[in-house]
Amino acid sequence: MASSIRLKTRTNNGVTTVRAIIRHPMETGFRVDNETAEIVPAHYINQVIVKHKDVLIMSCDWSRAISKNPYLSFMFKGAEIGDKLELIWHDNKNNTDSIETLIE
Amino acid sequence: MLRRDVFKVITSGSILLFTGLLKPITAFAKWNKAAFTAADFDEAVTAYFPGHKIQASDQITIGVHPVVENGAVVPVKINSDIPNIESITIFVDKNPNPLIANFDLSPGCIGFISTRIKVQQPSNIVAIVKSDMGVFSKSTFIEVHEGGCG
Fold first, then answer.
1. Which stretch of DSSP H or E encloses residue B19?
2. CA distance, residue B24 to nearest chain A CA (Å)
3. What's the pTM value of the predicted model, to 2 decimals?
């Protein structure tokens, strides 16, 4: 199965910009399904962590008010081209997914 | 209470304690339920930053369009040149749960976060930056034509 995560990096002058898009419904638990007329249960990513060479560099705690198919970008210093970068997410139904990439 | 019942209570208690201790300690440890489920803005802020005095700061900028057609996808960028930032937290004061997201930054990170959030109605977007010098906030109002929490 294709990963739910797209993770990209770009390094300029020692600063690496990380951009991630995660495929996820991010259901609030407020939305009513048009076909069944029933409330769609809450289903959302609540935590995301990013590791550079196995060291935690960024961690997020999210609510259901992050938009569907979440987008995340941040910047950090100290990475070399080719270093390992890993992103892991976890949702309120205990689903999880992760991806590894090499820093560009 | 009979003696064997007392014993039962003690053993079941210790089993719980042991399973708690044996759980692997992961980075996914501390989702602050009280703050994330708070329905009131001040309550959410207090639950997330207990005991902190929060000072308004011009060293934080919130990049967000002042008028939003679709509240389901509102791009937000937070920048701050406050030194030694530990975390950036986003609140939307009029959302059903005002605490939207927290980002813990390691010392190598730049004071920058970009994401997309849902905003139900015209609201203040509030960014709170925590550093070793204290807790600072910046707020900006946005107009929303179609709410994004459905």
1. helix B3-22
2. 15
3. 0.87
Tokens of B125: 């977007």
With b for 16 or more beta-carbon neighbours within 10 A and e for fewer, the B71-95 pattern comes to bbbbebebbbebeebebbbbbbbeb
At position B31, the amino acid (one-letter code) is W
Phi-psi map region of B75: left, alpha, beta (phi>0 left; psi -120 to 50 alpha): beta
Res. B29 pLDDT band, cuts 50 70 90 = low
Contacts of B92 in chain A (CB under 8 A): 65
Taking the CA of residue A89 and the nearest CA in chain B, the distance in Å comes to 9
What's the ipTM? 0.95
Secondary-structure percent of chain A, ordered helix, strand, coil, rounded to 5: 0, 55, 45
- pLDDT over 70, % of chain A: 99
